[in-house]
Design a protein that fits this description.
One of its GO terms (biological process) is DNA repair. The protein is an alpha/beta fold. It has helices at 19-32, 40-46, 51-58, 64-81, 92-101, 114-124, 146-155, 169-177, 192-196; strands at 6-9, 105-109, 132-134, 162-166, 181-185, 202-204. The chain is 43% helix and 12% strand. Strands 3-2-1-4-5-6 form a six-stranded parallel sheet, with helices on both faces. The protein starts with 5 loop residues before the first strand and ends in a 10-residue tail after the last strand.
Length: 214
C-alpha cells in the first residue's frame, strides 16, 4: 500500500520558478510607493504567506489603506509591468504526469489569491492534474493549518495519509500543525539550512526527486 493517498503542493517556488519575479515585483512596488526597498532575503522570507501577512511583515507600521494600495500596486506590477519570466520548473509536468498515472490525489495550497491561482493553472495547462486547491483568500494564511484542514476534509483523507510539498518553512510548519508529513524543496524561496529547521521528512533538489520518497 502507498504511504500517502494525497499529495498537496505549494505553487510558487515548488511547481513554478517564480521567486525571481516575486522579488522584482515587490522591489518595484516599494519604489513606486516611495517605501524602503526590501532586501531579496526579506522578500524570500515572506513568500508563501498571504499578501496581507507578507506586507505586514515587510512594513509593520502600515495602515489598512496603505496595505490595500500596496496590494493593488503589486498586482499591477505582477500582471502588467514586470517582464521577469516565471516558467514552470522543467520537471514539473513530468512529475505531475507520473503521479497521476500512479493514482495519487493531487492538490494545491498556495499563498496566491484565487484569481491568481486560476490564471496560472489556465496558462500552464496544469489545472487538469489537481483534484482540489485552496488559496490565500479562502483560508487563514500559512503557517496556520486551515488550508490543509479544508483540503483534507473536502477529499476525505486522514492527515497521516497526506503529504505536503513546499519550498518554505511556512509550508512545512503548516503541515506539522495539521498532523501531516512534509517534504521541502531546496530550489525555491528558502535555503536547505532554513528548511532543516522545520524538520521535514526529506529535502529534495529537483521536482522528480519527490518520487524517491513516496
Amino acid at each position: 500500500m502507498k504511504a500517502y493517498e494525497l499529495l498537496i503542493f505549494d505553487w510558487d517556488g515548488t511547481l513554478m520558478d517564480s521567486i525571481g519575479k516575486i522579488v522584482r515585483c515587490m522591489e518595484n512596488t516599494a519604489r513606486v510607493m516611495a517605501l524602503p526597498i526590501p532586501s531579496e532575503q526579506a522578500v524570500r522570507d515572506i513568500i508563501g504567506l498571504s499578501m496581507t501577512e507578507a506586507l505586514q511583515c515587510l512594513y509593520p507600521a502600515g495602515s489598512v489603506g496603505e496595505y490595500q494600495a500596496l496590494r493593488e500596486e503589486y498586482k499591477q506590477q505582477f500582471l502588467q509591468l514586470d517582464t521577469t519570466p516565471s516558467p514552470l520548473f522543467s520537471e514539473t509536468p513530468a512529475l505531475l504526469s507520473q503521479l497521476r498515472s500512479e493514482k495519487y490525489l493531487l492538490a494545491v495550497a498556495t499563498g496566491k489569491a484565487r484569481a491568481g491561482l486560476e490564471r496560472v493553472l489556465r496558462e500552464t495547462g496544469l489545472g487538469e492534474f489537481f483534484h482540489a486547491s485552496r488559496s490565500a483568500d479562502e483560508a487563514r494564511s500559512k503557517p496556520h493549518p486551515d488550508m490543509l484542514q479544508q483540503l483534507l476534509a473536502e477529499l476525505k483523507i486522514a492527515p497521516e495519509r497526506a503529504l505536503m510539498v513546499g519550498d518554505s518553512v511556512h509550508d512545512l510548519n503548516m503541515a506539522a500543525s495539521a498532523g501531516m508529513d512534509a517534504i521541502g524543496v531546496s530550489y525555491g524561496a528558502h535555503s536547505r539550512e532554513r528548511l532543516h529547521e522545520a524538520a521535514p521528512k526529506a529535502i529534495i533538489d529537483t521536482p522528480l526527486g519527490l518520487l524517491h520518497h513516496l
